[in-house]
Amino acid sequence: MIENLTLLEKAAMLSGKNIWESRAIPRHGVPSLFMSDGPHGVRKQLGSADHLGINASQKATCFPTAATVANSWDPALAEQIGEALGEEAASLEVDVLLGPGLNIKRSPLCGRNFEYFSEDPYLAGKMAAGYVRGIQSQGVAATPKHFAVNSQELRRMTTDSVLDERTLREIYLTAFEIVVREAEPRALMTSYNLVNGVYANENTFLLQKVLRDEWGFDGAVITDWGGGNDAVEGARAGSAIEMPSPGLDSVRQLVAAVQNGSLPEAELDARVTEVIELALAFRNPLDPVAPLDVAGHHRLAEHAAEQSIVLLKNDGGPSGGGLLPLAPGTRVAVIGDFAESPRYQGAGSSLVNPTRLTTTLDAIGATELELVDFARGFDRHGADDESLAAAAVLAAQSSDVVLLYLGLDEISESEGLDRSDMRMAPNQLALLGRLRAVNPNIVVVLSAGSAVEIPWLDDCAALVHGYLAGQAGAAALLNVITGAVNPSGKLAETYPIRHEDSPAFRYFPGTERTAEYREGPYVGYRYYDTANVPVRFPFGFGLSYTEFAYSDLTVTDTAVSFTVANTGPVDGAEIAQLYIGRTGPGVHRPAKELKGFVKVPLAAGEQRVVTIPLDDKAFRHFDIASDAWQVETAEYTVHVGASIADIRLTGTLAVQGTIAPITPAVPGPYDTASITDVSDADFAALLGREIPPAHWTPGPLGINDALCQMRDAKSPLAKLAYRILHRMLKKSEAAHKPDLNLLFLFNMPFRAIAKMTNGAVSLHMVEAILLIVNGHFVRGAGGLLRASLRNRRANAQTRKALQATA
Question: Which of the residues are catalytic?
């Protein structure tokens, strides 16, 4: 097939034909692929659509977000959700589902954390692999994203992630490695950012050396939407499809590169092969699609939420027991805007149009609780309203128990916008204090896709965290509150006491050219546990209505076995966690790292022997000197427990490794995890090179500078454009509704004007626009007119040539 394609046809296959579809080759039976967002539900837009979800999308089941499902610690459940996502994608004639997202939660402030699984790469990788297996079992390709080191939304299309290779591999690539090796995804999406000076989509180290040569990935690499920088360099590095359609300008660049010898045609052929294999590998569009079990998928969404809800506190009950579960007949007041209008998903490209949406007020009638009153209590966007608060106080006074629904609003968690702090709205916390004064029996039901500060923990008797629990989350939460379901979720991220305690506090976000990962490998619990920093809730923490005991630890070279017993009065499930740490001197590393886990369902009084294998990741570290994974010959401590801070069993294992223990060769901060204020000299020593300039260079703006930099442009027109864009953004924030298109425009580089307009604008036209922006209006306007005419003629000629081969 490749031999019978013209050079032009092959080049055309490496970019989309529109916003969501790849190019077809009808004469060879190669269909167009339809791609759709879908980390927690299929978002196939209706009619002509923008890529950020401003227009309506077809209805689909809105499952809990990845941040929520990660708390289940259950890859089998993830696979069930993946199967349902694949079924719905196939029913909507979607061939490639753009997800799951598995970037590491470097900071609690990343605006897209609700879409990601964990701060830990092992947990993230195992959960994401479950999604991929499930999606692809239904004849739909999964697309793990965003590869790689995409940890912030600010300047996400222009920022250079600067980090040492060991941290890169151990923390930010390991989750992708697990997915590629264990689930064999047919596609993978690159991130917008640069990684150590090279755009991820053009990064030969990432796409060739690591992804293909080391991990054996043989699928197609797809750009994030508008993430293509240089079509030729992308193809050379291993990127197969540029999305959305950049028009025919990229096609002509690829043809010219092959003709002038700068791109070997064999490289082009390799990319085309990957696209064809993706197009032919999965669902046959002519195959009949079974009718969807919409009700069944809603029940699965409810089950997924039940398994992922985390009980964080449970005091205040009779005789010193917990307030929860609530007994039948308990008189409750339901308070909070989120009980009436739930926060059940994040904002942005993952926004799903649910098949149905259950609210607390809908679901409470199916319980045996007696609803005394409902009060909104507060404005969800933070405005003070005494009448709402006063009504809530009256409702609390007349009830036995208050179910208070608190959370973050829509503008707090959104693609394209990082959070500014970890605090919740003051009006919500003020109401909590007033309610406590009249009724101490308060159950806070929290909705948030990211960690928040909880200085108010003493003001509630119980705290139930639902994260962003999907379209059936309200019913799932009530099932936990009433004891119909015993909570078993555990946190997949650490909750620090204050944002200032987090390891990347001084380094996040990168606000100009670079994002410096000065904390190195000490991300999340790896920092808190190693540096002995107190936290509000540790990684892996979660309560139950029963108790579990651990005993009989056995450690061998290949596995760890132990007994878990349910010693309490009700059935439940325990998530047992395996952590490993080296004893004695050697390469710098965290005190303990997650290396295995298992979710164990147990009836009351039941016990079970469980075994967790010690896989190839149990003891390894990446050794820069040998450019390879190595294991130090040393004694290692095996920790088994209910969380990183609740270790129940310990053992030791002498491991015959591949190298002798390494004398620490890094600056002191990294050997001791004292990484909150790393000096330039120490970071440079870790990098093994000079730190690249962090600030934008004064002078004319270039093709890869962001539109927001027009603030400092020479042209009064450019400055005016910046002010208008900035004003519109502030207006959308004041309305508490994130405008994804505005956020995208504000942070995107000038080149994206060409990449996102389906050929209407060429890169030569963008260069002319930049002349205007940099104060050369006459020369730029003339150049823009000439480049526009050339682009129109070239597009017409290219379209004609492609039609001639059809």
Answer: 224
